[in-house]
Amino acid sequence: MGTDRGKRGDKMTEKAKYKNKIRAAMILKGYTQADVAKALGVGGSTLSKKLNGHSDFTLPECIRIAKLLGRTLDDIFFE
Questions:
Q1: For residue 16, which of 51, 48, 49 has the smallest C-alpha distance?
Q2: pLDDT per position as a tens digit, 38-70
Q3: In terms of DSSP H, where are the helices of 1-79?
């Protein structure tokens, strides 16, 4: 039981890292959540759930986010 909790914690830590990178890049580019939601073709509440870790981004959404924010997928999701 202790190892499962550790794995979930690691996964949440990884999610928190890339979601914080997305938020930071949004600020640098001057984008609001509404701007990004519109670019992704999702509602504001859907984007909020994804940024808060309640839902995952799809691969096409990840690609759109990277392009919108002028970053690579590696910059946001893997480094």
A1: 51
A2: 999 999 999 999 998 889 999 999 999 999 999
A3: 2-29, 33-40, 44-51, 59-69, 73
24, 30 contact by CB (below 8 A): no
The 3-state DSSP class for residue 76 equals helix
Angle between helices 44-51 and 33-40 (to 10 degrees): 100
- Extended beta strands in 1-79, E state: none
* DSSP structure class, residue 75: I
- Write phi, then psi, for 10 (nearest 5 degrees): -65, -45
User: Which tokens in the block code for residue 5?
Assistant: 């909790």
Quick one: tokens of 45? 């509440």
